[in-house]
Specification:
By secondary structure, the chain is an alpha/beta fold. It has six helices and seven strands. 21% of the residues are buried.
């Protein structure tokens, strides 16, 4: 079942305890981010009091005692998009309460990970995210009767070796990589 609009929003409003995202692509082409991405590429930083809707979603989940986690898979050198995402997104998401980890695959053997991004809600509901080769999202699919053990395995394979976002980002920034 394709998820759009309110059906997609309900996933984040109605999950009971946990939401996990596996983010594999090195570039995402999100129309709403293009102006900020251009400012980032021109050397701009987020303005004072920077805020966007996802922060409210994360903060509300945290207020309700829910956990939101994400693993961002990266390769060095980081793409401009990944650096933008870290600077204009993840630093703020973590402050709002999202537990983000980074799995740097540059010098690692490939763990057993899927070829697609997904959200896993309450360890029972899987939404597969679909993208064009350029990173433009073309759909979100609620999977019926997915093999949950496979998705839980992918989650664990990514989560266990990943390091907290702030530790990773400060290490990369200091090393100039």
């Amino acid at each position: 079942m394709r998820l759009d609009g309110d059906a997609w929003s309900r996933c984040f409003r109605d999950f009971a305890s946990s939401a996990f995202r596996l983010e594999l692509r090195q570039v995402y082409t999100m129309p709403g981010e293009q102006d900020e991405l251009a400012r980032f590429r021109a050397g701009g930083r987020p303005p004072a009091g920077y805020h966007y809707g996802w922060l409210d979603t994360v903060a509300e989940a945290r207020r309700q005692g829910k956990v939101m986690r994400r693993v961002r898979v990266v390769y060095r050198p980081l793409t401009d998009y990944t650096e933008y995402e870290f600077t204009w997104g993840f630093a703020w998401n973590v402050a709002a309460g999202e537990d983000i980890r980074v799995l740097d695959m540059t010098e690692r053997d490939e763990p057993s990970l899927p070829d697609h991004d997904f959200w896993l809600f309450d360890e029972t509901t899987v939404v597969q995210l679909r993208y064009r080769p350029d990173g433009t999202q073309i759909g979100r699919e609620l999977l019926h009767d997915p093999d949950l053990s496979v998705y839980l395995g992918w989650r664990d394979a990514a989560w266990k070796p990943a390091i907290p976002f702030r530790d990773y980002w400060h290490g990369v920034a200091r090393s100039g990589v």
